[in-house]
């Protein structure tokens, strides 16, 4: 299952607490480009690789006008620990009730190690300055994620 959204669609609005308990909304970034990446869980191997790639290339992404926001079903405390452990400089939004995750259509059946499970599909949405989805990465290249985002611009 892939998201029901496509490039050209208006990005669904949202607001949720980040790892510091601050409320962050998509509308806070009006007029800016946003890299909105959904990842399954804090401090797991692939999610850490992806988050650290975005961290390592954060200044380059910002130079190109991108703001980065991560979202997972983990809670604020988990995000705080993960963000501090890996010095992540961008907001990690807590969505334990999966309201944003469901709006973006990234929750559902997936295959993991040969088993069908229900969970979050690692997906990145690049949103333009007008709040429109410019690009969707259904299978981000986690070790080169920032590079593929910049190449798609």
DSSP helix count? Answer: 5
State the fourth-level CATH superfamily.
Glutaredoxin
Main sheet: strands, sense, barrel: 5 strands, mixed
Spatial order of strands in the largest sheet: 5-4-3-8-9
Poorly predicted residue ranges: none
Radius of gyration: 14 Å
Order of helices and strands: EEEHHEHEHEEEEH
End-to-end distance, in Å? 25 Å
Question: How would you describe the overall organization of this protein?
Answer:
It is a single chain. This protein is an alpha/beta fold and 153 residues long. The protein has one domain (9-151): Glutaredoxin (3-Layer(aba) Sandwich). Helices cover 27% and strands 29% of the residues. The strands form 3 sheets. It has a 5-stranded mixed β-sheet with strand order 5-4-3-8-9. Strands 1-2 form a two-stranded antiparallel ribbon. It has a two-stranded antiparallel sheet with strand order 6-7. It starts with 14 loop residues before the first strand and ends with a helix. Residues 5-153 form the Thioredoxin domain.
